[in-house]
Specification:
Layout: E1 4-9, H1 13-25, E2 29-35, H2 38-47, E3 52-56, H3 68-78, E4 83-88, H4 93-102, E5 106-109, H5 113-125, H6 144-152, H7 156-166, H8 171-178, H9 182-196, H10 201-211
Parallel strand pairs: 1-2, 1-3, 3-4, 4-5
Length: about 220
C-alpha cells in the first residue's frame, strides 16, 4: 500500500508534537516535514511530492501567502492534488462551510483534536473525506456575552481601525489619519476580522454596527 506523504503546519509546538506522534504511529502515513508559518508550508509543498497537508487555519502569514482562506485558496490553486485537513479554533459555520465548499478534505475543531484526529486520518487513509461531528450554529449577535468576549480580544489599535472603518474610511484613509502604514492598518483590520470571525467587509461592518462596541 502506498504510504501517504504528509506535512503538518502549526505555530503551536504542543499541537505539532501531538500531530507528529499520531502520524508517526500510523504506518499508512509518512511524515515528510513540519512548518510553523505559511511560507515554510509552501516551501515544503513546492519541494516534495505530497499527498496530504494538515494545517492550522490561523498561522503567521506573509504578504504572498497569508493565512486562513487566502492560504487554503493558494494551496488548492497551486497544488490541486494535495488533500487538505484544516485545524481551527474558529466555530463560525460560514467559514467552515466555505472551507468545505472549496474542497478541503475536512475541518477539525482544535478543542476536539485529540478525539477526532485519529478518525480523520483513518478516513483519509481510506480515501474518504473526514466529516466532523455536527455543530449547532449559533447567532453570535444574539449572545451579548460572546460579543463582549470577542471584542475584548481586540487590541486598542485594532479597535481604533474598526472605529474609523465603521465611519466609512478606507484602509489608506485610516493609515493617514492614524499615521501608520497601509500595510500595518490592513494587517490590524484582518487580525480583527479573524478574532471576530467575520469573512467580508460587509459582514464586519454589519457586526460592528449591531454590536456597537464603540458606544461610550
Amino acid at each position: 500500500m502506498h504510504e501517504i506523504k504528509a506535512v503538518i503546519a502549526d505555530d503551536h509546538p504542543v499541537v505539532l508534537v501531538g500531530l507528529r506522534e499520531m502520524i508517526q504511529r500510523d504506518t499508512r502515513f509518512e511524515l515528510v516535514g513540519e512548518a510553523v508559518s505559511s511560507s515554510q508550508l509552501i516551501k515544503l509543498l513546492a519541494s516534495n511530492q505530497l499527498d496530504l497537508v494538515i494545517t492550522d487555519f490561523n498561522m503567521p502569514g506573509d504578504d504572498l501567502y497569508g493565512d486562513g482562506l487566502q492560504l487554503i485558496e493558494y494551496i488548492i490553486e497551486h497544488f490541486p492534488a494535495v488533500k487538505i485537513l484544516v485545524l481551527t479554533m474558529i466555530s463560525n459555520q460560514l467559514i467552515i462551510s466555505r472551507l468545505l465548499e472549496m474542497g478541503v478534505a475536512g475541518v477539525i475543531a482544535k478543542n476536539h483534536i485529540h478525539e477526532e484526529i485519529g478518525k480523520a486520518l483513518n478516513a483519509l487513509a481510506n480515501d474518504r473525506p473526514y466529516v466532523a461531528p455536527s455543530v449547532q450554529p449559533m447567532s453570535v449577535l444574539a449572545n451579548a456575552k460572546v460579543i463582549d468576549e470577542r471584542f475584548s480580544n481586540l487590541s486598542p489599535r485594532e479597535l481604533e481601525v474598526l472605529r474609523l472603518f465603521v465611519t466609512g474610511s478606507s484602509v489608506s484613509e485610516i493609515a493617514r489619519l492614524l499615521n501608520r502604514s497601509v500595510k500595518t492598518v490592513s494587517t490590524q483590520k484582518i487580525s480583527a476580522m479573524h478574532k471576530l470571525e467575520v469573512l467580508t467587509d460587509h459582514a464586519l461592518l454589519t457586526y460592528c454596527i449591531k454590536a456597537d462596541p464603540f458606544e461610550s
